[in-house]
Amino acid sequence: MRKPIIIGNWKMFKTSDETVSFLNAVDGACQQLEVEAGVAVPFVNLGLAKQHAKNLIIAAQNCHFEDQGAFTGEISVDMLQDLGITHVVIGHSERREMFNETDETVNKKMLKLLAKGLTPILCCGESLGQYENNETAMVVKTQIQKAFKGVNLEDAKTVIIAYEPIWAIGTGKTATAQIAQDVCAIIRQEIANIYDEVVANTIRIQYGGSVKPENIKELLAQPDIDGALVGGASLDPTSFLGLVK
Ligand code: PEP
Questions:
Q1: Which of 82, 131, 194, 207 is the most exposed place for a label (fewest CB within 10 A)?
Q2: Is 9 part of any known ligand binding site?
Q3: So where does substrate get bound (predicted)?
Q4: Whole-model pTM over 0.90
């Protein structure tokens, strides 16, 4: 049985005061949920967020794949681990589109996180043009194959995949539950092709793209959707609690 996991992606939102007031309002209400829940916080507020979160997972939104070195502005996995961070989002489409993240760097980050015992939340998903050209299956399969290159079978089971059609992120356009389910099933089948049925049945696949308290239930009712990665609707405490409850 796969436990659903809902992660809010705060992107470049919330000052330190706003981070603390969100967590003071939300964390206590997240005891004994039926799902795992957390928020992916900007780097500078990760340590602070950890201090104010007993129940929520505090995730990072990115990391570098080298241990240390002359990489101005970057943050290593060891630095995240020092703060007690256990989950890291990699390959978000905003990083792929605006910050030159490639399947190759995503793979390096995946291998580094797994080697250090952290959980990658691996994002994949097609653009509007690719969706309209019926290229979705090909695009996500390729992203999955490249991201999992060199990942062993045991480590693969621990990865969380977030399927996020780019045309649905921050646009208010949610993929229908059926579209999201169909693509998540394709992703799970691809994991079975690379590894085996056990890995495919263990790995958790989130859907992301304009998820809101009003549509999350239908999405999570789909057999291959095991949670959500949520941007906009995760920023407000009431909306976040509406998602996780
Ligand atoms: C995201 O940032 O991963 C996301 C899905 O954003 P939104 O929920 O705002 O579409």
A1: 82
A2: yes
A3: 9-11, 170, 210, 231-232
A4: yes
